[in-house]
């Protein structure tokens, strides 16, 4: 998931430079702003989904690890002999 997130982040930066380069090679009227805005928005939405899933997996993983450590600690403390 982290690889997809970083790839989408790099793709976003590359696409902005690609879009800006279009204005050097073509007339302003020939560059379709609607096409580039919709493509860039799609990349941003994909990046948002990847980041959301990554944060969700991280958050659920830390909760599960905390629960496991807490139970082990409670069993160790309450299971000792006096």
Automatic annotation (TrEMBL):
Protein's name in the database: ABC transporter
Source organism: Mycena chlorophos (Agaric fungus)
Spans through the membrane: 43-63
Key words of the record: Membrane, Transmembrane, Transmembrane helix
């Amino acid at each position: 998931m982290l690889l997809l997130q970083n790839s989408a982040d790099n793709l976003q930066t590359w696409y902005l430079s690609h879009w800006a380069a279009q204005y050097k090679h073509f007339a302003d009227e020939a560059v379709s702003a609607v096409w580039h805005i919709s493509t860039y928005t799609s990349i941003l939405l994909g990046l948002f989904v990847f980041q959301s899933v990554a944060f969700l997996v991280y958050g659920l993983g830390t909760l599960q690890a905390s629960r496991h450590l807490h139970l082990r600690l409670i069993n160790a403390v309450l299971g000792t002999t006096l």
